[in-house]
Design brief:
This protein has 330 residues and is an alpha/beta fold. It has one domain: Alpha/Beta hydrolase fold, catalytic domain (Rossmann fold, 3-Layer(aba) Sandwich), CATH 3.40.50. Helices cover 39% and strands 15% of the residues. Strands 1-2-4-3-5-6-7-8 form an eight-stranded mixed β-sheet, sandwiched between helices. Helix 3 crosses helix 10 and helix 4 crosses helix 5.
Length: 330
């Protein structure tokens, strides 16, 4: 772990954030520019544009072994449909900006480290499409996976920031719709409290190199579209009943204003009897995992996340095998 790496990234993020209000298009363009600087493991993955649940999506799969050192070429051989396991990924961006492409450093690293395929969903964004459009789209994507024959015990939800929040709220929506739940939920620095009442919103404001309260409330209001934030699908850290949830891994940086979103959700999960891991890394910013390749803590956190996902998929596979095994002798 390198103190110099953390200091360098903190300074870069502070310089990247302009002062004053920006238009939606300026916010979106600035985020694309920032995320284009992240390292994507192109030599270890293959991608193809597809659709899922009626929305555009990016299919990401591990590159076959003989081509592991090559650069991306034509996307032949990337298959839709059931496989050994699937990561259903939801990108970050405050529900206002971002895309599957801006999240590719995260999705790609999870795919490369786990050997699982992924779908990254291009859900509708606010302010053009406020709440609950994003949750409707991510739930539709999950329904589509199930309709294609995916075993839910071989599916995991994952996401970062707003998408980490969607990983949780999509699981809530799936449960309430009577759908079988995925094998696990992984959330990087999730947004889980639209009321913005966590203590870290105040105590971490100087330490956080990305957010200010004003910026979070600006984009948050676009997503809310006038909805009451005091409801489970907007503030699950405060209002969600997590009964019946699959195992959850929450990874968050200690310098984040959103730190208490994860802390409080973990407490609710424990109270509901859910297996939950709260993984807090010191002195790192929001979605620090995106800095894989330049920040040691990012690579280590992604390794822990990949182990968690592989274990949950393997556990699901063992359960399927046990259920299929004949009982008694012949």
């Amino acid at each position: 772990m390198s103190r110099e790496q953390r200091i360098r990234i903190d300074g870069m993020l502070r310089r990247a954030e302009p002062e004053g209000p920006r238009t939606v298009e300026e916010i979106r363009a600035g985020f694309r520019e920032l995320m284009a600087r992240m390292i994507v493991p192109h030599g270890r993955i293959r991608t193809v544009d597809t659709t899922l649940g009626g929305r555009p999506a990016l299919r990401v799969e591990p590159r076959p072994g003989p081509d592991a050192g090559a650069q991306d070429g034509p996307d032949v051989g990337v298959q839709d449909g059931p496989g050994v396991g699937t990561i259903l990924y939801f990108h970050g961006g405050g529900w206002v900006f971002g895309s599957p492409r801006t999240a590719l450093s995260l999705t790609g690293n999870l795919v490369a480290r786990t050997g699982l395929g992924a779908y990254s969903v291009d859900y509708r964004l606010a302010p053009e499409h406020p709440f609950p459009a994003a949750v409707e789209d991510t739930l539709s994507a999950y329904r589509d996976l199930l309709d294609r024959g995916e075993d839910p015990s071989a599916v995991v939800f994952a996401g970062d920031s707003a998408g980490g929040g969607l990983a949780v709220t999509t699981c809530l929506a799936a449960r309430d719709a009577g759908l079988p739940l995925p094998a696990a939920v992984l959330a990087f620095s999730p947004g889980l409290d639209a009321t913005r009442t966590g203590e870290s919103m105040t105590t971490k404001e100087d330490a956080d190199p990305i957010f200010t309260r004003a910026a979070l409330e600006h984009t948050g209001a676009m997503y809310l579209g006038g909805a009451d934030p005091r409801q489970p699908l907007l503030s699950p850290a405060l209002h969600a009943d997590l009964t019946g949830f699959p195992p959850v891994l929450l990874q968050v940086g200690a310098n984040e204003m959103l730190l208490d979103d994860s802390v409080r959700l973990a407490a609710r999960a424990r109270a509901a009897g859910v297996d939950v891991i709260l993984d807090v890394t010191a002195d790192v910013p929001h979605v620090f995992q995106a800095f894989a390749g330049v920040l040691d803590e990012a690579d280590e956190a992604l390794d822990r996340a990949a182990l968690f996902l592989r274990q949950r998929i393997r556990a699901g596979g063992a359960a399927r095998a046990s259920a299929a095994r004949p009982v008694g002798g012949g």
